[in-house]
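Input record, target 12 of the design panel.
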């Protein structure tokens, strides 16, 4: 019975997202976002874990604030008595949508909420909860405002993520970086955003499945985990490399397409900034993988009895790691 109410709220959350992205009016879009918000709060909260309750409360407060600002800007833009200020209120509206998504510099709540959630809820927050705000951002054009948002997202996520030891916060700052890439692809071509989002979601699922299976939350725990299973170690390292966008892996493809798209649209300077600032996030991915690869902690042997026999994890990992090869072959032959 416990899982039944979770399932109901999960369906309601999805319906809210679909209402938001398919609505013809701004008010309908706002209603969809509110249904989504009110459905996900019970999924986040847990009577046995105060950290989950605290995270869900933080999430509710920030999302409510963003929703209030959004509704205010929608009402002002819908009326005709402030035509001269329409661009300003449009920027306020976009800021509220970006706050809902956790984009820098409106990211203040995102790592803190992630830190209090379990891995299943983290996956929801990293993937599904990005869809509706992204679709709303899609109705804009590339302006100086969005250029600054993209650069801020990559700069802040790179600097803030370097010093983290919590894997949930590392994935949160990684998500902020990827949001910058997704916004840049979204404002030019929706198809590339869909490709980017799907590949990012697959890679996030791969990483979070491993963390969830072995109940890992901090960097130190990965050292002992990887000593027992070299297949798991390789999957773990390759997925982080894919998340960083290194060329042999599937995660490189959407970044490649995004850079190509931005160069074709004469946004060369922003593309250069994006590549340079992404190197910072790649650094802390490498820090995780190198420390996992090199540090041996045999005294921590409480993971050793767990066997890596989940074929689902193995299959999804192969899809992620070999996907670029298959896609390249498909593009070449068709």
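The sequence produced for target 12 reads:
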């Amino acid at each position: 019975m416990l899982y039944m109410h979770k399932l109901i709220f999960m369906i309601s959350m999805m319906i809210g997202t679909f209402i938001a992205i398919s609505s013809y009016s701004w008010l309908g879009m706002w209603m969809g976002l509110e249904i989504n918000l009110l459905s996900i709060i019970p999924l986040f909260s847990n009577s046995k874990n105060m950290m989950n309750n605290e995270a869900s409360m933080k999430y509710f407060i920030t999302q409510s604030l963003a929703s209030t600002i959004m509704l205010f800007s929608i009402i002002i833009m819908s009326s005709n008595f402030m035509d001269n200020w329409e661009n300003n209120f449009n920027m306020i509206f976009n800021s509220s949508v970006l706050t809902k998504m956790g984009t820098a510099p409106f990211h203040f709540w995102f790592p803190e909420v992630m830190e209090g959630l379990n891995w299943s809820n983290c996956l929801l927050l990293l993937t599904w909860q990005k869809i509706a705000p992204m679709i709303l951002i899609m109705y804009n054009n590339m302006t100086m405002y969005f250029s600054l948002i993209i650069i801020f997202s990559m700069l802040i996520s790179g600097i803030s993520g370097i010093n983290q030891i919590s894997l949930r916060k590392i994935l949160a700052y990684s998500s902020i970086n990827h949001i910058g890439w997704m916004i840049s692809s979204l404002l030019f071509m929706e198809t590339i955003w869909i490709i980017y989002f799907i590949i990012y979601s697959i890679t996030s699922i791969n990483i979070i499945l491993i963390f969830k299976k072995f109940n890992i939350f901090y960097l130190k725990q990965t050292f002992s985990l990887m000593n027992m299973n070299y297949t798991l170690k390789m999957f773990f390292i390759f997925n982080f490399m894919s998340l960083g966008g290194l060329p042999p892996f599937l995660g490189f493809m959407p970044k490649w397409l995004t850079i190509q798209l931005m160069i074709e649209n004469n946004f060369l300077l922003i593309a250069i900034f994006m590549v340079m600032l992404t190197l910072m996030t790649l650094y802390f991915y490498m820090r995780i993988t190198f420390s996992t690869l090199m540090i041996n902690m045999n005294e921590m042997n409480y993971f050793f009895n767990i066997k890596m026999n989940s074929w689902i994890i193995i299959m999804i990992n192969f899809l992620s790691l070999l996907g670029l090869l298959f896609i390249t072959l498909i593009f070449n032959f068709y």
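The mean pLDDT is 85.
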